[in-house]
Amino acid sequence: xxxxxxxxxxxxxxxxxxxxxxxxxxxxxxxxxxxxxxxxxxxxxxxxxxxxxxxxxxxxxxxxxxxxxxxxxxxxxxxxxxxxxxxxxxxxxxxxxxxxxxxxxxxxxxxxxxxxxxxxxxxxxxxxxxxxxxxxxxxxxxxxxxxxxxxxxxxxxxxxxxxxxxxxxxxxxxxxxxxxxxxxxxxxxxxxxxxxxxxxxxxxxxxxxxxxxxxxxxxxxxxxxxxxxxxxxxxxxxxxxxxxxxxxxxxxx
Length: 253
Ligand code: NAD
Prior knowledge:
It contains eight helices and seven strands. With 253 residues, the chain is an alpha/beta fold. The protein has a seven-stranded parallel beta sheet, sandwiched between helices. It is globular and about 50 Å long. Bound molecules: nicotinamide-adenine-dinucleotide (NAD).
């Protein structure tokens, strides 16, 4: 039956940046759909754990700084020890640094590109080589942005990294679709999370953003849960290389 295609029973999902915001939303959604969830973050994921365990789900955590050179090895080793398999990867962790283009330092540029772009590619590569390609199945969901489509204001490194996320999504899909691996992205609109705290506290920018969103409100982690389960499940088996906007209509303007 059609709704069965959306179930994630017996699947193992890895979500980076799982302690808060959208990452926490993906974890909760996957657990509710039946998956075992492995969260990856620098900080305690207690809140995510409580949300999942309170409804009978299973949650494991890997504490690691994704900027560390051995982060990918740490994730793979722990996934193997915890579950012995991975079926779904969500490259969600990301940072945004707001500064005028004229002031951006090489150090800040590299920080953003390393996490938002380089890690997305190399963690996907590592998971594909270890699990998805040998198993001829797997789901990768990259978290893009409205700034995969637009240039943004005072966030040039972020815009560059998120445009790259959309390109990486298509490039990997072109190579791996034939091996049963779906690579897609979700481009959230303006969501009320830590990522947008500064933006939302700037009265002028906040009003200008809200005025442009046809849905008339900021998004929430709950808003991306359905798209996450869809792209993680068999319901999207013939969807490859696509970036799905969940944006309250922002891109339609
Ligand atoms: P957030 O700041 O709450 O989440 C970012 C996550 O990344 C956190 O869990 C944080 O701990 C993790 N992280 C950052 N640096 C890390 C590191 N070095 N090691 C390990 N974890 C690290 O914001 P969010 O909105 O939930 O962001 C999630 C994703 O969604 C990001 O990729 C962000 O760019 C993207 N996004 C957010 C919005 C929005 O409006 N909130 C819009 C478009 C895209």
